[in-house]
Amino acid sequence: MAEVNIPAAVADESGVLTGWSEGARRLLGYDGEEVLGRAACDLLAAGDPDEVWRFLAGRQSWNGKVELRHRDGHRVAGALVANRRVQARGVEWLLVWAVVHRVEDVDSLVGWGFEHMPGLLGIFDADLRVVAGNADMERALGLTNDQMRGLRGPECNPDPWGEEFERAMRQVLRSGERQYVDAFVRVPSEAREHAWSIVLAPLRDAAGRTRGVCFAARDTAREHEAQERLLLLNDAGARLGTSLNMTRVAQQLVDVTVPRFADHASVDLFVGVELGNEPPTLAKGGPVTLRRAALRSILEGAPEAGVAPGEVATYPAFSPGAECLATGSPVILAVTDAAIASWKAYDAARVERLRAAGVHSALLAPMRARGKTLGFAAFLRHRRPDPFEDEDLLLAQEITNHAAVCVDNARRYTREHATAETLQRSLLPRSLPDQSAIEIASRYLPAGSAAGVGGDWFDAVPLSGARVALVIGDVVGHGIQASVAMARLRIAMRTLADIDLPPEELLTHLDDVVIPLTTEGGGEGSDAQITGGIAATCLYAVYDPASRRCTFARAGHPPPVVKQPGGTADVLELPVGPPLGIGGLPFESAEVELPEGSLLALYTDGLVQARGGDPDEGLAALCRVLNGPVQSLEAACDAILADLLSEPPDDDIALLLVRTHALGADQVADWDVPCDAAVVAGMRRNASEKLNAWGLEDAAFVTELVVSELITNAIRYGEPPIQFRLIHDHPSLICEVSDASSTSPHLRRARVFDEGGRGLLLVAQFAQRWGTRHARRGKTIWASQDLTHL
Q1: What's residue 449's pLDDT?
Q2: What are the residue ranges of helices labelled H in 142-262?
């Protein structure tokens, strides 16, 4: 046991003695061998040992009067203190016999303790006049006990807070309760105010009357500063990174640190970082050039700053800024004549500004993120008297590191956003739809960097009835304007394709989209101006694998090349429409039958006019390549580009190769429908028999319902001739009913007692998709079921 002379013993949680001191042996006469392993309660001279231990085991500590039995039989009365404690080996009880310790010169020790107690201690009488103060209070006030005895608090310290202090003491006298006060006070012996934690307690006599006030104050400046640092770090974490703009992030850094941390703060980044570029690799011992991203000072106009936001500054190799960047570590600099002597010879004007502002301490922290140094943040103090310390160094580095990550995120975003703005919106679909009607391959080559990004585009859009729309277009010109126009045009095309317009009508609507862009987009320097705006060409085709016919319409776009099985590649002659954006002129379409396995090439003029070549020669070269053996569409695309391009193109190139497939006779069933409601049952039966033949018996119920509703609607509201067609294009089953009327059906809400009006609602519920498409004469209502679950 640690203190063998004190009468003490140790017992385990069950009350068995496990330790016995020399003092305990002298007190009770037992050697350790005689008592270790016995129950501690066996040493009691009175009481039930088991009951005593049960009472003790339910507590954390206990003290009181007990009688123990000495080894020779006499009783030993005294006070026992029992404390429960948790040790590595388990729970145990420390049992200590209280021994009266006689101390000589008690009054002197108490007096010395008051005199030398850490912190400010003072005693005030009932009139709130000083009776005594300890040595720390004397030093803080600059007064001896004799000098301050009899003075009131405000008379000892003229700080404005003295009146509040005296009011708090009066409250103690009135209430008899302690008062706890946190205050910022400047004592006469110090140059600035700082945090104090103060306790005011009543002094009572033996009768309980309050006779004065005891004052104790502890300097909590360190704790307060630590708390302020944590709050600042928390605020920085909340405020930094709310923007992906580098300048704004840098400004957030200086805003959060001035004036709470520094009187002046600035952020300098390597030139080019603000554009999203990677920071440069630093040359050892060389100067560094940075651009100021943000600045803030408590002084109006920041006169101590030699560089304004947006300006570029070069820091020589010997400067603290260059040192900070080279080492990647923060530095604290006392701004003395000796410290800035070399800088004065380099830039005397900047040194003079620092001196004029009274800058006495500087802290520079590198901005590093993901292993890259982006620049540094500089913090200056000229109004706050205290210099930067090691704790400030850690705080500045923590905040700057967080800001650096945010700046780097903004830098990466700036780079990626710039790329996305000019390129991504003009990128074509990453994958074209997997259609049974066609096999497709594509290529897109942007123009060289000198030309800038253009507006070439292509797409393939699935349509109803297993059909597919093929489109290729070119917004004339280069740059962001052309790319944005292309993006808007492509979105409009997809919207129009979704409502299944015929090709010539779709181009008319696209023309209506482009015409407003001519007034919005004919920007300065654009080479894509027609009537002061932009122009675009487009070729739109719809291929139907059931009829093996393809309908084309073009708006000023180069004609496609078609190679039929066993034939040669030829340019397909189609009606020429005006480019989009002219307005007022019609578009025409042409329908061509394409046998199964036909090869169709759609392209933009950059392919056949590479480097200003003759378009006819380019077309001839394209046909020549297609006339050769075509192992795959992907290989054919590569062969075309390799043959027609000898160097990087000066114009964007888009190429779309399509091989057509047809739906077999065993996939399509057609019936003419007499205009008589009595035939609906027969049409349902025909559909059911065809489904049985296709092995789709599970789809019969839904199909019969859809057939009934669509044919009934056509008989009631349409015009003959009426045709009914089923298409099995795995994994879809498509039901189509055509009639000569151009009136489109629509969903409506049937009332409770209406006998009709629910047909299309049922079709919409049971089919995955349904819609209407118009032809030159009449319309087709279609509904598609998904067979993947069957």
Answers
A1: 43
A2: 145-148, 153-156, 162-175, 221-239, 246-257
| Residue entry with tokens 């507006």 | 455
pLDDT, tens digit (0-9, with 9 covering 90-100), for 681-734: 999 899 898 889 888 888 888 888 888 888 888 888 888 999 999 999 888 889
Whether residue 444 contacts residue 473, with contact meaning beta carbons closer than 8 Å, is answered with no
CA dist., res. 196 & res. 177, Å (int):
20
The b-or-e profile of 70-97 (16+ CB within 10 A means b, else e) is eeeeeebeeebebebeeeeeeebbbbbb
CB 517 within 8 A of CB 526: no
Tens of pLDDT, residue by residue over 302-351, are 998 888 999 998 888 888 888 888 888 899 988 888 777 777 777 788 88
Burial of 498 (0-12, 13-18, 19+ CB in 10 A): middle
Q: What are phi and psi of 735, to 5 degrees?
A: -110, 125
Number of neighbouring beta carbons within 10 Å of residue 289: 14
Q: Are 488 and 513 contacting, i.e. CB atoms less than 8 angstroms apart?
A: yes
Tell me phi and psi for residue 47, to 5 degrees.
95, 160
- Phi/psi for 109 (5° steps) reads -60, -40
Q: ∠629-630-634 over CA atoms, to 5°?
A: 150
Q: What are phi and psi of 511, to 5 degrees?
A: -60, -40
End-to-end CA distance of the chain: 83
- Residue 656's φ and ψ, nearest 5 degrees, are -130, 115
The kind and range of the H/E element at 712 are helix 700-717
DSSP track, 529-569: -STTS--EEEEEEEEETTTTEEEEEEEBPPPPEEE-TTS-E
562 within 8 A of 658, measured Cβ to Cβ: no
The count of other CB atoms within 10 Å of the CB of residue 255 is: 16
Which of 621, 459, 472, 673 minimizes the C-alpha distance to 559? 472
Identify which of 138, 136, 165 has the alpha carbon closest to the alpha carbon of residue 149. Answer: 138
* Distance from C-alpha of 30 to C-alpha of 15, rounded to nearest angstrom: 18
Beginning with the edge strand found earlier in the chain, give each strand of the sheet holding 372-381 in spatial order: 312-315, 288-297, 264-270, 372-381, 361-369, 331-334
DSSP track, 97-118: E--PPP-TTHHHHHHHHHHH-S
**Spatial CA neighbour of 400 closest among 238, 253, 252:** 253
* Residue bearing the bigger pLDDT, 127 or 52: 127
Residue 373 dihedral angles phi and psi, to the nearest 5°? -95, 120
Name the packing angle between helices 221-239 and 390-422 (round to 10°).
Answer: 0
Average pLDDT over residues 33-45: 88
Among the listed residues 482, 540, 476, the one whose alpha carbon sits nearest the alpha carbon of residue 507: 540
Least confident of 324-333, 531-540, 727-736, 764-773: 531-540
d(CA 493, CA 509): 9
Greatest distance between any 2 Cα atoms in the chain = 131
For the residues 760-765, what does the mean pLDDT come to?
Answer: 77
What is the three-state SS of 380-429?
Answer: EECCCCCCCCHHHHHHHHHHHHHHHHHHHHHHHHHHHHHHHHHCHHHCCC
